[in-house]
Amino acid sequence: MKRFSDINLQSTLKQKTYTLLYELWRLRKDNNIIYRFIILVEACQLCWFSISPKFIHNPSAMQWLEKALHAIQIDNALDKNNEKGLLSLLDLAFGWQMLYVLIFGFCIVYRISKPNSEGSRGQPMMIKFLNFSSMLISYLLALPIFQIYFTVMICVKEREAYGDLVCYQGIYFLHVVLAFLGMIMHIIISVTFLLFHSDLNPFSNSAGASPQNRHKLYRLFIKFLLPLMALLTYKNKSMNIVVYFYAVLWLIVLVYRWRQTPDVNRMNYFFTVGVDTLTLWLIIYELVRLVSVI
Prior knowledge:
Elements: H1 2-26, H2 32-51, H3 60-70, H4 75-78, H5 83-113, H6 124-140, H7 142-153, H8 172-196, H9 215-232, H10 241-259, H11 266-293
Helix pairs in contact: 1-5, 2-3, 2-11, 5-6, 5-7, 5-8, 6-7, 6-8, 7-8, 7-9, 9-10, 10-11
């Protein structure tokens, strides 16, 4: 009897979770201009890891691009030689995702306890918060949040982000635990939302409507890997390996993108592929220049 009750509870939990995720997808309001803006900002974030002076010294002709990209990077806030900036960003990222998890859990419990309720009509602000946060966490802020958590977990003393903090001593371990838990929440939220953020309707008006594929997950994996490799090779002889590895990974992702079924909105699809191709060309340019310097 207890086993039957547990199975029934699991089935109800899955059903309510899928229903809530579907509702988040249904309530999204994509705008073509906003969608393309997000793609451009993501491209600028990703390009930084090929043109950053941490990996290669840029000639004067490229320094203007380096400065422009640096101005919109999370590194611009981290490298201030002030631990308060790093810890404030850690608290903000962790607190935001913790609030997301609590609200999501509350919505599930609410729907289980009151199966005949009106659903999201009784929780309009919560649903809007979850919908808005899912988009930001999974797309626009995915890479910066990874950078914040990795900067705390992998303490590089040569970096200016830590100020007077003493790595891996005393209260610093508390920050590491928060970063580790935040990383787990970040991955779960992003992967879950990206898997459900697909639209099979060939007549959909959604800006990012596309058949379900792994392209978005591969992009997320690159966003996870780049800051990790950048910190592990920070200002040492092997740091330029990041650019080599990045070029191979991005080429694989782009080829996979070309081979997949196009998005419903062909203009947005060609815009995305075009921006990704320009990103690849910039990476290749930096790679060729890096080889010529050696």
